[in-house]
Design brief:
The chain is mainly α. It is globular. Helix 1 runs antiparallel to helix 2, helix 5 (about 110-125) runs antiparallel to helix 6 (about 130-145) and helix 6 packs across helix 8. A 3-stranded antiparallel beta sheet has the order 1-2-3, with helices on one face. It contains 13 helices and 3 strands; from the N terminus they run αααααααβββαααααα.
């Protein structure tokens, strides 16, 4: 069987059976597509360990980071293990690959004072009543107040928010669900957005649908809201579900200058939330559950 056919089978397996996140599947696809380009799209049984080592070496010469190299090696091992289980290969050349040890780096964390400034500025902007400013304030408060991943915040539906208990039901990696608490500042920001901001964005969605389809729900042209977006908590300027890229831009624009970084992603707020929880005396196991880490060792990095 051609290598590209095995790749597609494996990607379908990790997406449909293992239920890995779309972002993880995209990373696997990129890794394996690069492998196919390097070794050719011949019979997968002809791939030998020397081919895999040459692929690794070329990436190393190009300046690939150790963490990326380790992930790519893990991806290839996973594919060959699956192929062997399915009887598509007899020998697994990936077993003799050498993975570089990942250098553990400490995550970027904003100080509590810096984030107080960011959130105060966002609250002031939201005070004007602008729908986007109300949304941005709520997004920042929700990210920091819950320690959620950006994909989890963007994936929130209205029924996932329990205002009485002040909890969010998040869908994390592997489609696993967990319920996490959030504080009063996030609750106030969410309520303000849901009452005064979100209805404006919903109206924009309805106007866009009416203009293009005469008000009927049909397959949407690119850039317009998709069916199901009406359930989303956070909406974009056109009423579609807010995307991770827009949140990345928001955090980079508002938080990065406060911590002296040129570019900063939403994960920095997650790192900051975890660190500040531990600083405040929270139990490590509790923080692990809030973050949704499978391993306590992953959470322990915040103790440093």
């Amino acid at each position: 069987m051609r290598t590209s056919e095995v790749v597609e089978g494996y990607l379908a397996h990790v997406a449909d059976v293992r239920r890995l996140s779309p972002a993880t599947v995209r990373a696997y696809r990129a890794d394996l597509a690069d492998l196919v380009r390097a070794v050719g799209d011949g019979d997968i049984t002809r791939i030998e360990v020397d081919d895999l080592r040459e692929w690794q070496w070329q990436a190393t010469k190009a300046g690939q980071a150790k963490a990326t190299a380790a992930r790519r090696a893990s991806t290839v091992r996973g594919m060959f293990a699956w192929a062997a289980e399915k009887g598509l290969v007899e020998a697994d050349p990936s077993q003799r690959m050498v993975s570089p040890k990942r250098g553990r780096t400490l995550p970027t964390v904003a100080t509590a004072e810096a984030l107080d400034g960011v959130l105060s500025d966002a609250a002031s902007a939201a005070g004007t009543g602008d729908a986007i400013a109300l949304r941005d304030h709520a997004v920042l408060e929700a990210l920091y107040g819950s320690g959620a991943r950006v994909s989890e915040i963007c994936g929130l539906d209205l029924h996932d928010v329990d205002h009485e208990r002040r909890t969010l039901r998040l869908r994390g990696k592997g489609d696993k669900e967990r319920v996490v608490p959030f504080g009063l500042p996030a609750e106030h920001a969410l309520q303000a957005y849901l009452v005064r901001g979100r209805p404006v964005l919903v109206a924009r969605r309805q106007a866009a649908l009416h203009e293009v389809h005469g008000g009927e729900e049909k397959p949407q042209p690119r850039g317009l809201p998709a069916k199901g977006d009406e359930r989303a908590v956070f909406l974009g300027a056109k009423g579609a579900r807010l995307g991770a890229r827009a949140v990345h831009t928001l955090v980079s624009r508002t938080v990065a200058p406060r911590v002296g970084a040129e570019v900063l992603g939403p994960h920095a707020l997650r790192h900051s939330a975890a660190t500040h929880l531990l600083d405040g005396g929270a139990d490590l196991r509790a923080v692990q559950e809030i973050l949704g880490h499978a391993s306590l060792g992953t959470t322990q990095i915040y103790t440093h």
